[in-house]
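re: that chain from earlier
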Amino acid sequence: GSVSFESALLDAKLQFDENEASSILIGGIDEMNDYTASLFKLAGFIKQDNESLYKVLNSTTKGVVYSEGATFFVLEDKKQDNSYAEVLDIEILNKLEVDEVEAKIIDFLKSNAMQISDIDAVVLGYNGDVETDTYYKTLSATAFAKTQQVYYKHLSGEYNTASAFGLWVGAKIVKTQQIPEIIKVNHVEKVEYKNILLYNQYKGIDHSFTLISKC
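^ sequence. v structure.
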């Protein structure tokens, strides 16, 4: 499901921890075919063909725009001269209610000796589904109201490994120390973008937290 890429990240981390590898190529790939698309439409997962253009952040309808993509990274167990971002931690949770997410994030950050105020930007998986984007909207209005918020699925579309594109967005922010206007949800400027939290979920299940930091 939507934690496929995070599962691969965890697999890579385990291989590093067990000294089974020192350099790993990791990727998330999804392709969409006509048959799968027809089934998703029948199930109501995809927005109607005749639906007018909409903005992901203020969608009022169910379903998403499904897409496809491929995103790859090279992970290494030691910092290199060309390293610019570090994956500090990953957590996967199956099913959460909207009012449970903030506490889970606080616990996740606490296990990494951080709190919400230490996060310089949060990358959220808004996809335009009015029913489940409430997970992100609630966090945006509460826990991360004073944090720079970023989104990306208006550029990539939704697919099972779209969070890999989100990780690329977060890593680019760390590398360039800039956030393009096109991906900003709000405007909370920072002097430095050091710690980035990524949060993704799909239909209220397969929640993932990924914490990255500037090397």
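The helical segments are 4-17, 34-43, 101-110, 134-141, 153-156, 162-176.
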